[in-house]
Amino acid sequence: MSTIIRRVALLALVGALLLPAAPPVAAAETTAMAEAERQVVALLNQQRAEVGLLPLRVDVRLRTIARARATDMAEKGYFAHQQPDGRWAWDLMTEAGITWFGTGEILAANSSGELSESASSAAQQWRDSSSHYAIVTSRDYNYLGVGLAEDATGRKIWATIFLKGPDRTGAWAKLTTPGLSAATSTTRKATIGWTGADVRLQVLTSGLRDLQLQYRYGGSTTWRTILAATTSTSIVQTLTVGRVYEFRVRARDRAGNYGAWSAPITIVP
To answer: Are 174 and 262 in contact (CB under 8 A)?
Structure first.
C-alpha cells in the first residue's frame, strides 16, 4: 500500500511499496468488479462524512484511468505510483485532456477472496494509514475514480485517483404541485412552479445559473420548450379543458452543466 499526492508546483511521496511480481493477466471489467468499485466509493465517502466533509463525486474519466492503472500493475507485476514507462497518474490525466488543479492517488493490494471483502479491506487499509486517510479526508478534492484489477495469483489491486477540478456535476430541479383556477368555460389557468439548485461540491461548486421548462401533450413524444433559460420560479399557462399536458424542468449551473430532467407532472384541466 502506498500513497502519492501532487498539486501544482508541489509533490510529496510517502512510502512507495513494491510487491513480488505476479504472472501477467488481463483484468476484464465485470459487473461484480464495478459493484466492488462502487462499494469502495461509498466507504470512502462514509469516512469523509464522519469528519463532516461532503462526498466526492465519481468522475468516469478518473475511473477509467484508475482501472487502467490497476490493470497495468496486475499485468506487469509491480505496485507503485510510477509506471514502468515513467508516467504517473497525472500524466495520464493530462493526456486525457482532464483539467486539474490538484490530484492524489492511493493504492492498496490484498488477497481477500470475495470482491466485497477486498473492497472493505482496501478501505480499511487506507483508513488505518495516516497518510492515506489524509488524502481520503482532504478538503481539497471534489471528484474521484476507483479502479480494480486482479492478477493471476488472485491478488486484488486497487487504485483511487482524487481530483480538484472544475465543476462537472449538473444542477438539479423539480416541479412543485401545480395550481389550477378557472379562466373561461373551456380553459384553466395553471400555475407551474419549480425549485432547483446546484449540487454542492467540497470545492469549486459553480452555482445555479438558470432553468429550462418544457411541456408536451398527452400521448405525444415531442417536448416543446416554454422557457429556454429562466431564473424565475413559476409561470402561468392557459390550458384547454379536457386536454392532457405534461411538464418537466431541468437546471443548468454556471459551468454549463445541465442536470437530468425532472420527473414529469401531468395536468388535466
So the answer is: yes
